[in-house]
Every structure is written in structure tokens, then in C-alpha cells.
Amino acid sequence: EAGVAQSPRYKIIEKRQSVAFWCNPISGHATLYWYQQILGQGPKLLIQFQNNGVVDDSQLPKDRFSAERLKGVDSTLKIQPAKLEDSAVYLCASSLSSSYNEQFFGPGTRLTVL
Amino acid sequence: DQQVKQNSPSLSVQEGRISILNCDYTNSMFDYFLWYKKYPAEGPTFLISISSIKDKNEDGRFTVFLNKSAKHLSLHIVPSQPGDSAVYFCAASAGGSQGNLIFGKGTKLSVKP
What digits encode the pLDDT tens for the residues B40-96? Predict the structure, then answer.
């Protein structure tokens, strides 16, 4: 069974630039999550999708971050414009459903904002 | 305001001995707890979970203990192996198996041969 795929694995940008991350969850997983993990911290949930609908985006900085999952499968997370404090690993995870909390994580995208 | 705390940033254990990783929480509404293991350059992988209706769950070498009155849980690894060297994250949710996960900062375990 293929795992959660993410790209790119690494990205370096300058502040005020835009960046986008892509995630393809495990086939058949209805629930998809985006997390931000700052160095030395645990992952923090940014947004949760159930199929193509948003379940929870209460911690997403909506002035600069956006995410979509148009066809209920893969998803993109965008930051526009980026700030220095956005430097982190962005993790995508998926689970069979929102009632199954064993989430499967991708390898993450390490973002460095200079 | 950290709701899930892992107060030991690192732990070093000899191969074959027991590793005990600790986690404290402050939110009494948490009712489902999980442990994840993370190797460098990889995403976290699920290890073991426990519901608040239990005080112990065992899976092979891994056992999680939950003390609700102390708001404390621990992960025991017996016997520890060098391949167990990783960062371990404790996570909790307040909606049973449906709630969003709140993670601790992690504990880096080093198992020495």
C-alpha cells in the first residue's frame, strides 16, 4: 500500500514570496490533515478536510494561508505572502475517516523562509 | 498554553533495558491518547493508543499506561532496541477517536548498543 505522498520535500524562498505544497493521501482515505511543525515543537493542526469539505480550519492563518481539496483526493496548501516565522515542516496526514484517529503521515515538506 | 507536555527532551537507555517516556496533560476533556514515533526526515508513524476508559494497553514490546487522576500517561518499551531510537510524540484528543490531535513537543530516545 502506497503511503502519503508530499512534494516538494524541501523549499527555500524569500519572505513575501508565495509557495505551494502538494499532498496525495492514501487511496480511500476520506480525511486529510495539514500540520505545521516548527523546530522543537510537536505538529500543530492547520486544517482538516473530510472528502472535499473543510471540517476544521480554526488554526489556519487565513490572511496568508489557504488550502483546497477540490476532488476529495489530493490537496494543496498555499502560503502567500510568506513570513520568516512560517519556516517549518509542513506535514500532510490522512485517515480512513474522521472517526479513525490513527493518522498516517507523509514525509513532510521542509520550508525555509529567508 | 501547552495542553500536552513532554518534559524530558531526551532519554538515553541501554539496549535490552526498559525505556519509559512520560507525558502530562492539562485538559480534563481529553479522552483518547496516542503515541507516535518519528525518524529523521520522515513523518510520524502511529505506535499505540489508549482510550480513557482503560488504564493500560499493550502491543508487543510497547505498553501505554494512563493515570487519569494524575493526568499522566507513559509509554514503556521493553526490551529497548537500537532501532527504537527516534523522537516519540504524545498526542491527545477531546472527541474520542474523532477529535483533533494535540501533540506534545516530543522526547528523543537514544538506545545504545
Answer: 989 999 999 999 999 999 999 999 999 999 999 999 999 999 999 999 999 998 876
Determine, for residues A107 and B104 on separate chains, whether the beta-carbon distance falls below 8 Å.
Answer: no
Mark out chain A residues that contact chain B at CB-CB < 8 A. Answer: 4, 40-45, 48, 56, 91, 93, 98-108
Alpha-carbon distance values, B92 to A78, A111, B13, B25, B99 (Å): 27, 26, 26, 8, 8
Contact B101 A103 (CB under 8 A): yes
pLDDT tens per residue across span A42-75: 999 999 999 889 988 999 999 999 999 988 899 9
Q: Determine, for residues A42 and B106 on separate chains, whether the beta-carbon distance falls below 8 Å.
A: yes
